[in-house]
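User: Structure tokens for this complex, please. No commentary.
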Amino acid sequence: MSEPILSLKKVNKKIGKKHLIKDLSFDVYPGEVFGFLGPNGAGKTTTIRMIVGLTNITSGEILVNGNSISKDYKNAIENIGAIVENPEMYPYLTARKNLIHFGRMSKNVTKEDIQHRLELVSLDHVKDEKVSRFSLGMKQRLGIAQAMLHNPKILILDEPTNGLDPAGIRQMRDYLRKIAKEENISILVSSHVLSEMELMCDRFAIIQKGELVQVEDVSNEEQVDIANRHIIEVNDVEKAKVIMQDEYPELSMEAQNNILRVIATKEQIGSFITLLTSKEIIVYQVIREKQTLEDRFLQATNGEVS
Ligand SMILES: Nc1ncnc2c1ncn2[C@@H]1O[C@H](COP(=O)(O)OP(=O)(O)OP(=O)(O)O)[C@@H](O)[C@H]1O
Ligand SMILES: [Mg+2]
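Assistant:
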């Protein structure tokens, strides 16, 4: 695999007696959309503030494109575009003038760059309107255009979907995926709403009370050794249940109408079908109930919310 664009190595943050972030390590790779998830108060904003150098690290290290944010701030921050608190825009200026203004703060931002960014987030048609007339979703997108002006390698967005309606959330998701793909930029996006992240991210990390709970791919469904809930539809559910219980007394199972619900691995399901068929039960279909990110989160955190 290529070198990570962002690397957290055993990062700790203490404020007074509070140990807010504990030995947090994870990597973000080029071109991926990485979800940074956790309940309210888990430490997402605190971590992001350390990544972008807004607050110092108590111990550990954060590398951005190989540069330490604490020892080599200038070279590290050059690679980052971020929206941490709400994007600061001048409401009485137009979208385009805002970008011109912010573009002056970094070197080599051309008119063409600004136009390209406006098109990327579909604000081209309203570029000469004042930002005070923009919806929240439009302001967020303008914030993203601004954060990308200096061609960063990674975008860091703290809860960009906060306050957006379902259509706005969906749009944001589409833009972030498009930006990652077309501009080959990595995106770290935090959220406490897990269902929103499922379609947006390639991988995700979950933190709880300042500690990493798990890092994984969003689509890890094909692992045969993971037990999932399945629905097995048969012609004679009572008979099927007796056959199954005889053979697998330990298995947790429910029978209802003409379906059996079981928690089993993919391999076990294969054996169940063979067994049932050999006893003249007709198996109409087997459906795996997809485990949502929410399920996985609750599993990982034992259902504790914060
Ligand atoms: N300056 C500070 N001094 C003391 N404690 C702080 C400070 N900033 C944050 N905290 C505490 O650190 C913990 C993590 O806060 P943080 O804002 O990072 O969480 P979060 O995951 O971003 O939550 P949310 O989803 O609500 O935005 C909280 O318990 C918060 O009260
Ligand atoms: Mg926060």
